[in-house]
Design a protein that fits this description.
The chain is built from eight helices and 16 strands. The chain is of the alpha/beta class. The longest helix is centred in the N-terminal third of the chain and has 17 residues.
């Protein structure tokens, strides 16, 4: 497995505040490219940290410069990164040891920046004797010493309630809507809101999709979906009018893309002119690329909360959330309002 040894480059390693506090940004191996982009937006170079995996699979961390008295922002989505040989469990454990290293080095405040919160789908018991794994992860982050958590588009909003420390919950919805409306946007073939319909993939995503539709001035439809078992979905009827329209399926994440492909095929079978997909987190595990390539989607727009492995189909389009996260980090550091980033409309569930 690959090591990561980051030293400050183009920018100073810390940013002072009037009170004398310093900001430092550290990158784990979950998504170092996103961490670098956040640092560049802030005008702060990444703090020097040595990360590696021993031959027995244990992860190791050493912060190679002083963080005493600094506000330390550790950027680490708890996702797999195959290019660096990291599994989701590796990145979670690495985040914990990085937090512990900062605690031991006398950091003033430690903020875990977790754009993709792993285990967030395991937010409740769906069957007897199952764990509530997202609660366990929340407790682990708090026990390690995180003073605050910054995350984006949780799969279930109630995960925020598992924490006793503040949680800043961001959403990429505004960013993705702007991408659709922009010059290089998704709907280059659509003439206006009357030609668009936003399709919720299940009942749990109706509020998210309604907000998305309202921002576009589009209609709303719903797929009747159930899950006979984990990571298996069965699509029933399309509820709403999609015939002759450009349909946009909006979800928080795409994992194996099997459900997404079935949803796209169902919408096209109901008479849609074309279908596109929008999601924040591009997990793309298993045969996701093959499913997307074989699907009817004209565009699949995602963000870079998770590193996109090579070989993505041509229809996949990536929008960076680095600016959004950097703005939020800056506001946390200066004790300014975070909700102003979204005009107080980041409760999308």
């Amino acid at each position: 497995m690959s090591a990561l040894d980051v030293a400050p480059r183009e920018h100073p390693a810390s940013q002072p505040l009037r009170s004398g506090r310093r900001m430092m940004v550290l990158a784990g191996r979950g998504n170092p490219a996103l961490a670098r982009a956040i640092g560049a937006e802030l005008g702060v170079g990444l703090g020097a940290v040595k990360l590696k995996t021993f031959s027995n699979s244990e992860v190791y961390c050493r912060i190679e410069e002083s963080v005493r008295g600094a506000d330390v922002f550790i950027v680490q989505p708890t996702c797999a990164n195959p290019e660096l040989g990291m599994s989701a469990n590796d990145t979670l454990m690495e985040l914990l040891v990085m937090i512990d290293a900062a605690v031991g080095a006398s950091a003033h405040r430690i903020v875990a920046v977790v754009p993709w919160f792993g285990y967030s789908r395991q937010d409740k018991k769906s069957a007897p004797r199952e764990p509530i794994s997202s609660r366990l992860v929340a407790r682990a982050l708090e026990s390690a010493g995180a003073d605050r958590v910054l995350t984006m588009d949780l799969h279930a909003g109630q995960v925020q309630g598992f924490f006793h420390v503040p949680v800043d919950h961001m959403t990429a919805m505004k960013l993705l809507v702007e991408e659709i409306r922009g010059g290089n946007g998704l709907m280059s073939g659509a003439g206006g809101g009357e030609e668009l319909v936003v399709v919720a993939p299940d009942a749990g995503r109706v509020k998210l999709n309604r907000n998305f539709a309202n921002r576009l001035g589009a209609e709303l439809a719903l797929l009747d979906k159930d899950r006979p078992e984990q990571q298996v979905a069965r699509i029933g009827a399309v509820i709403g009018e999609v015939a002759g329209k450009t349909a946009i399926i909006v979800d928080d994440m795409i994992d194996t893309a099997g459900t997404l492909r079935a949803a796209g095929e169902a919408v096209m079978a109901a008479g849609a002119k074309e279908v596109c997909a929008v999601a924040t987190h591009a997990i793309f595990s298993g045969d996701a690329y093959e499913s997307i390539a074989a699907s009817p989607f004209r565009r699949v727009v995602v963000t870079d909360t998770v590193p996109i492995r090579p070989g993505a189909p041509d229809c996949v389009e990536v929008v960076s959330c680095a600016g959004l996260l950097a703005d939020t980090v800056s506001r946390i550091f200066t004790d300014d309002s975070v909700s102003e980033v979204f005009d107080g409309q980041n409760q999308i569930f």
